[in-house]
């Protein structure tokens, strides 16, 4: 396996134009993310968190700077090459879940695994595991359009993990969830991290961030703090049945 960082950015910059007025959203970020690490990105509203992870997912072009993935430069890729890279290597959980309404929940989750070359049986077993962990086993045959927002959010996470991506990029993956569903999502993230999944996750919630082993804080589009989280500060995950209040 390559020792290259899963993601490396060099002086990454994003300047939006708002009616001709430049809005600098990301101002020179150098970030290196090692295989198997779990990085939480935090910072106040407007600090550039979403812009950064959108660029890392190829959903928003950079203004300048470089993005490398596993030793390969990717910021210069075409849109279709980015689409292929996402299909093969990157799992995305963003605010717009983009689930396919005329397919069942099960098919939505299995599709990325099938596209990545899994057998139908492997795809089904992976889907059963992921939906089971997220408390959604009984929704497998429903259309996503019949699900509540928080359920769709969890299906999107299952779909993002279906093909065991090299990188999971998540923007507020617990944003719409109550404490029980938050706990299920965090337990699954913790489990896949233990299994070697590399994760970059934007979150406002310090308790959610404390699951990660590294906390990167942005302010005005720049990294102002970057530290590993010592193990004792990581919160233990409860088992089913425990009551863990993560919000409020
Ligand atoms: N499409 C856009 N056009 C113009 N400006 C934008 C656009 N998207 C974001 N911005 C601006 O870029 C800056 C960074 O926004 P971004 O959404 O990345 O911050 P954030 O840290 O994710 O905020 P939040 O926590 O509220 O989601 C803000 O000033 C925002 O107004």
Automatic annotation (TrEMBL):
<dbReference type="InterPro" id="IPR015854">
    <property type="entry name" value="ABC_transpr_LolD-like"/>
</dbReference>
<dbReference type="InterPro" id="IPR003439">
    <property type="entry name" value="ABC_transporter-like_ATP-bd"/>
</dbReference>
<keyword id="KW-0067">ATP-binding</keyword>
<dbReference type="InterPro" id="IPR017871">
    <property type="entry name" value="ABC_transporter-like_CS"/>
</dbReference>
<dbReference type="GO" id="GO:0098796">
    <property type="term" value="C:membrane protein complex"/>
</dbReference>
<dbReference type="GO" id="GO:0005524">
    <property type="term" value="F:ATP binding"/>
</dbReference>
<dbReference type="GO" id="GO:0005886">
    <property type="term" value="C:plasma membrane"/>
</dbReference>
<feature type="domain" description="ABC transporter">
    <location>
        <begin position="7"/>
        <end position="245"/>
    </location>
</feature>
<dbReference type="InterPro" id="IPR017911">
    <property type="entry name" value="MacB-like_ATP-bd"/>
</dbReference>
<dbReference type="InterPro" id="IPR003593">
    <property type="entry name" value="AAA+_ATPase"/>
</dbReference>
<dbReference type="Pfam" id="PF00005">
    <property type="entry name" value="ABC_tran"/>
</dbReference>
<dbReference type="GO" id="GO:0022857">
    <property type="term" value="F:transmembrane transporter activity"/>
</dbReference>
<dbReference type="InterPro" id="IPR027417">
    <property type="entry name" value="P-loop_NTPase"/>
</dbReference>
<protein>
    <submittedName>
        <fullName>Putative ABC transport system ATP-binding protein</fullName>
    </submittedName>
</protein>
<dbReference type="GO" id="GO:0016887">
    <property type="term" value="F:ATP hydrolysis activity"/>
</dbReference>
<comment type="similarity">
    <text>Belongs to the ABC transporter superfamily.</text>
</comment>
<keyword id="KW-0813">Transport</keyword>
<keyword id="KW-0547">Nucleotide-binding</keyword>
């Amino acid at each position: 396996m390559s020792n290259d960082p899963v993601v490396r950015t060099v002086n990454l910059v994003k300047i939006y134009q708002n009616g001709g007025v430049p809005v600098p959203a990301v101002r020179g970020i150098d970030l290196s993310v090692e295989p198997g690490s779990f990085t939480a990105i935090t910072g106040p509203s407007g600090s550039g968190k979403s812009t950064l992870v959108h660029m890392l997912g190829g959903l928003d072009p950079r203004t300048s700077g470089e993005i490398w993935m596993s030793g390969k430069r990717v910021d210069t890729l075409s849109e279709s090459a980015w689409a292929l890279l996402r299909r093969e290597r990157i799992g995305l959980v963003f605010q717009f879940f983009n689930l396919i309404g005329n397919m069942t929940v099960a098919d939505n989750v299995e599709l990325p695994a099938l596209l990545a070359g899994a057998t139908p049986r492997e795809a089904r077993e992976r889907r059963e595991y992921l939906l089971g962990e997220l408390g959604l086993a009984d929704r497998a045959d429903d259309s996503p359009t019949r699900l509540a927002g928080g359920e769709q959010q969890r299906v999107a996470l299952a779909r993002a993990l279906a093909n065991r991506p090299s990188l999971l990029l998540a923007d507020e993956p617990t944003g719409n969830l109550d404490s029980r569903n938050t706990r299920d999502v965090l337990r699954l993230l913790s489990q896949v991290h233990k299994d070697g999944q590399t994760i970059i996750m934007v979150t406002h919630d310090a308790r959610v961030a404390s699951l990660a082993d590294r906390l990167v804080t942005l302010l005005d589009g720049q990294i102002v703090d970057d530290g590993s989280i010592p193990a004792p500060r990581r919160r233990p995950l409860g088992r089913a049945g425990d009551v863990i209040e993560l919000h409020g």
